[in-house]
Automatic annotation (TrEMBL):
Gene Ontology MF terms: ATP binding; dephospho-CoA kinase activity
GO cellular component assignments: cytoplasm
Designated gene of the protein: coaE
Superkingdom as given in the UniProt entry: Bacteria
Family: Belongs to the CoaE family.
A Pfam family the protein falls into: CoaE
Pathway recorded for this protein: Cofactor biosynthesis; coenzyme A biosynthesis; CoA from (R)-pantothenate: step 5/5
Chief place where the protein resides: cytoplasm
Role according to the record: Catalyzes the phosphorylation of the 3'-hydroxyl group of dephosphocoenzyme A to form coenzyme A.
Alphabetical list of PROSITE patterns matching this protein: DPCK
Keyword line: ATP-binding, Coenzyme A biosynthesis, Cytoplasm, Kinase, Nucleotide-binding, Transferase
Protein name, as recorded: Dephospho-CoA kinase
Enzyme superclass (EC): transferase
Length: 197
């Protein structure tokens, strides 16, 4: 019987690094961002509907993220339409992973887990968390966005305090060693629960 664990956390809280720690302990892993890359890729499920909805966002048979960003920048009301197209396709990808999963623990790496109600499909939820200064420094150190873009993304995400309040497990990602110890403890606790069931 597979235990389905949702993994979420605000931008810059170490979610991807933490997901890899679960994988290193033998857990299966589904990544929402990777699923979006798949459906945006050449012949991906989102290519035709997005081309129809937002002309010009498909380049060389794949959804161009820069073109899509530019379109959304000029048409901010299009976000809802984009989500209405993309979310069901991402859900199908996740359902296919779930149906094929044979691992004892499956990790679902979903940035907007609470925001889109997906926690209802999970047996438990783990949240990565770190202090705001560290979070901001990590994101800006990537060099992929400026402070204004960071604040814009953060504003679309549920506040860290609310995520922590709704989580079954909180993983403090202040250091790698601390995060690894917490992940190992969570995996042990879930596996012990499966043995006792």
């Amino acid at each position: 019987m597979t235990y389905h664990l949702g993994l979420t956390g605000s931008i810059g809280t170490g979610k991807s690094t933490t997901a890899q720690m679960f994988v290193d302990l033998g857990c299966a892993h589904w990544d929402a961002d990777a699923a979006v890359h798949r459906i945006y890729g050449v012949n991906g499920a989102a290519v035709a509907p997005l081309q129809a909805a937002f002309p010009g966002v498909v380049v060389d048979g794949a959804v161009s993220r820069p073109a899509l960003r530019a379109y959304l920048g000029e048409n901010p009301n299009a976000f809802r339409q984009l989500e209405a197209i993309v979310h069901p396709l991402v859900s199908q990808d996740r359902d296919a992973f779930r149906a094929a999963c044979t691992a004892d623990i499956a990790i679902y790496d979903i940035p907007l887990l609470f925001e889109n109600g997906t926690e209802a499909q999970m047996d438990g939820v783990a949240v990565t968390s770190v202090d705001p200064d560290t979070q901001r420094a990590r994101v800006l150190a990537r060099g992929t966005m400026d402070a204004a873009q960071f604040e814009q993304i953060k504003a679309r995400q549920m506040p860290d305090t609310e995520k922590r309040a709704r989580a079954d497990f909180i993983i403090e990602t202040d250091t790698l060693e601390h995060a690894q110890a917490q992940v190992a403890a969570i995996v042990d606790q879930i596996r012990q629960g499966q043995r006792d069931a």
